[in-house]
Amino acid sequence: MKALDVNKEYIDLVLKDPELYLQDYKKTVEKVSNSKARYKGKPIPFLYNPMFFTEEDIDNFNKIGSMMISIANKVTNRYIEDESFRKKFGFPEFIEELILLENGYDIHVPIGRFDIFYKDYDNFKFCELNTDGSSAMNEDNTLAKILLETEAINNLRSKYEFSYFELFDSWVKESIEIYKKYDPNNPKPNVAIVDFIESSTTEEFEEFKEAYVRNGYNCIIADPRDLTYRNGKLYFEDYRIDLVYRRIVTFELIEKVEEIPDFIKAYKDRAMCTIGSLRSQVVHNKIIFKILHDQDTLERLSEEEKDFVKKHIPYTGLFRGDRQVFMEVLANKDRYIMKPLDLNASRGVFAGKDHSMEEWQRKLDEVWNKDYIYQEFVNPYRRELLVFNEDGISAEEFGAIIGLFMYNEKLAGLYTRVGNKTIISGLSQYYTTPNILVKELVKG
């Protein structure tokens, strides 16, 4: 059984009775509108068609995630040990200082979302590694639960078992396991989900807070500017914080560091367990893809890891310095995509395929020598998915980007965005499609 075969069966089912499923789609839209699946105050754009995956796919994602964690650990260890290697990353001095601090639990990437373009184990490429404020758990889980109630899914339950990847209680369990390494003598740490209020994902933070409380832990959501450090502990008013679930992204921490002296001092003193620590920045910054292709990095990897990098990490270079780099990128616009080193949500990203030669040169001039990378452009693998519109229901091809959520160095779940634009992101027209594991029922 292949996921694409299940997907085709699902599409055929819906297209045979469009009126029935159009009415069900309208009910589903209403459910989503009234749910917590929201981004910047608006309902998440979604498709009635889930992304189906089989156990074979999940095995592949486990292997991909484990291999990337192994490579990330080797690179981070070298960053800690090798001063000359650290210079490649170009981090501000105070960020380097924070990265080098022991985090108290010996895991470099406690939480992350590794985004890939995926067809099967032999055919996939990485897009980026999000190990810093990784998000979108709420989008997937809320939509998955709603779509598992649809008529189309129910009409296939005689043949298949469907399930989704729960991402909240599972994170509570894993984060507490990590915390036990930091302090094995405190079975009930007070938790704080910490981010700048103007950047926070409110609905998602509330879901995580409810999950901590549901599992027996005190939890608050706090802006780091409202925290005070006194008597060797970090506080929000009179609430002592033992465990920080950090959702602050590093570039914003750099921008606002002067506003959060107590948080920084407490971090330096390891007054609380911070999950994730600043060590995750080593592989979060987009320069990591360039460094992975460097010969001195490849020499430290196993043969399997070397092949993995060469086959699945897009070639990446720094867009600065030698003018020949500029001319190479300029002359081959359809081969490259440009990305800032450390912004999120696809801000500042642009691809040569979307621009005329004149526009391409103008945009390259604007970012030359300004903390940008140029990267091999990867065409997303495409899948047919159902679309409901004024003309009825149709099956259209979409490119997909699949995020592998990694909790405590293990695969925890998935997040998928699809779109028809060159860049699939929240800044362009996109849909979120919940990820559903499908198993064929054994006939007794």
The chain-level structural class is alpha+beta
> What portion of residues belong to β-strands?
25-35%
Radius of gyration: 22 Å
Number of helices: 17
Q: Per the principal axes of the C-alpha atoms, what is the gross shape?
A: globular
**Briefly, what CATH class?**
Alpha Beta
What does this molecule look like?
This protein has 444 residues and is an alpha+beta fold. The chain has one domain (3-285, 381-440): Rossmann fold. The protein is 38% helix and 25% strand. The protein has helices at 3-16, 18-33, 55-81, 83-86, 93-100, 137-147, 151-154, 169-182, 202-214, 250-255, 261-268, 281-284, 287-293, 295-298, 303-312, 323-331, 357-367, and strands spanning 38-39, 42-43, 51-53, 111-120, 123-130, 160-163, 191-194, 219-222, 227-230, 233-236, 239-241, 243-246, 273-275, 316-318, 336-340, 350-351, 372-376, 382-389, 392-407, 410-419, 431-432, 435-440. The strands form 6 sheets. Strands 4, 5, 18, 19, 20 and 21 form a 6-stranded antiparallel beta sheet that branches. It has a 4-stranded parallel beta sheet with strand order 8-7-12-13, covered by helices on one side. It has a 4-stranded antiparallel beta sheet with strand order 14-17-15-16. Strand 7 (191-194), helix 9 and strand 8 form a beta-alpha-beta unit. The mean pLDDT is 95.
